[in-house]
């Protein structure tokens, strides 16, 4: 279900309740069930939706509270689901921050690294990118192509096979050159297959984190990964200290529910959403406007 459709259904369920002269348990439950159905179909985890339903039921008192208040309660619960409860680390201009980017292969991690750097460059920062993906052939060239286009300095090597060495050398170099934002791209992981390769890539990710001591680890998540996204995000969070999430491919037929899954699985805020393949197609993510947009 596309984002607008999800929003439309939730909004309709709420406005249906507003039309009723008497709001009893039956009417209210039907409203909540419709919201729950919309969320399920948008790939939000079952337990998660049930929690939300129970929370709303506990808060709303049908007999004493005005309809407008109930609507606000439902919207507040939706906002709460999208709020990790703790703000993301935000880099400070003029002070060096190291941001490590992790995610499944194909999630849009490499593209997001250059978009993220470009976003800050446009604001007058001095970002730089390090390619610590020595696993996928062509990873360095891909990042370099994007970085070169935006004139963002890049560190990497096609012949060095140790990602930890590249990451450490790159971060050191850019620190010396007074870059205020150093973004480290890492190799994509496949966690579906419990193979040795997957395990060693996870291990390598932890070593890169340990060696570079990033201020922030960003988990990049593909919005098209459906119900699987929750467990994928959780697996990353368990291995490395994920501090925030960027959800990619929110253009086209993206499902809004994955944003809720990302927050729930990582207990971290979504800071940006990717809305296309181009460099400038990265939007700051803010909970309240997102929910307002959902509800039309
Ligand atoms: P990585 O393997 O995680 O580094 O993924 P890539 O950065 O190579 O991206 C995989 C594909 O997704 C590429 O074709 C990108 O152009 C595309 N992609 C990345 N972000 C977005 C996005 O926000 N929207 C769309 N439509 N495509 C994206």
UniProtKB/TrEMBL annotation:
Catalytic reaction annotation: GTP + H2O = GDP + phosphate + H(+)
Keyword line: Cytoplasm, Endoplasmic reticulum, GTP-binding, Hydrolase, Nucleotide-binding, Ribonucleoprotein, RNA-binding, Signal recognition particle
Gene Ontology annotations for the cellular component aspect, listed alphabetically: cytosol; endoplasmic reticulum; signal recognition particle, endoplasmic reticulum targeting
Primary subcellular site in the record, as a coarse category: cytoplasm
GO terms, biological process: SRP-dependent cotranslational protein targeting to membrane, translocation
Annotated ranges, domain SRP54-type proteins GTP-binding: 269-282
GO terms, molecular function: 7S RNA binding; endoplasmic reticulum signal peptide binding; GTP binding; GTPase activity
Localization per record: Cytoplasm; Endoplasmic reticulum
Protein family according to the UniProt entry: Belongs to the GTP-binding SRP family. SRP54 subfamily.
Function recorded in the entry: Component of the signal recognition particle (SRP) complex, a ribonucleoprotein complex that mediates the cotranslational targeting of secretory and membrane proteins to the endoplasmic reticulum (ER). As part of the SRP complex, associates with the SRP receptor (SR) component SRPRA to target secretory proteins to the endoplasmic reticulum membrane. Binds to the signal sequence of presecretory proteins when they emerge from the ribosomes. Displays basal GTPase activity, and stimulates reciprocal GTPase activation of the SR subunit SRPRA.
Assembly behavior: Component of a signal recognition particle (SRP) complex that consists of a 7SL RNA molecule of 300 nucleotides and six protein subunits: SRP72, SRP68, SRP54, SRP19, SRP14 and SRP9.
UniProt free text on domains: The M domain binds the 7SL RNA in presence of SRP19 and binds the signal sequence of presecretory proteins.
Name used for this protein in its record: Signal recognition particle 54 kDa protein
